[in-house]
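Hi everyone,

Forwarding the result from last night's run.
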Amino acid sequence: MHKISRREGFTIIEVIVAVFIIAVGLLAVAGGFLGERSLVEDTKRTVVADEQIASQMENIKFTNYDDIESSDGVDVSETTVTVSLSGSTTSTTSVTVKVVTVSSSYTSTFFHGQQKTRTIKFYVYQKGINY
């Protein structure tokens, strides 16, 4: 009777299992890179939206109070606020201000095409802008 010689090495099953494990690991790494790419793209779009808002705020900052009106991406309303002034004597006064809401929208790639909106609200009174 012949003895089967024992050879050093891997069986085909061991090789298949090892290749499968490596493939799953590489797919996980590739998926992470794709998710990171979407997040970076969303960050770029958020920065562009914020720059648009800042640009609109700058335009409003140098606009005459009476000329500030609603436009595309800008909503303006007027309200009266009561301000308390404290010092040696406490007094209150009412001031009419314009409430300006500036917004900019973009489509998110990270959140699978959802519409995202960046918004800032600030108050303008006749003597200037107040954040």
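Helices lie at 12-61.

Cheers,
N.
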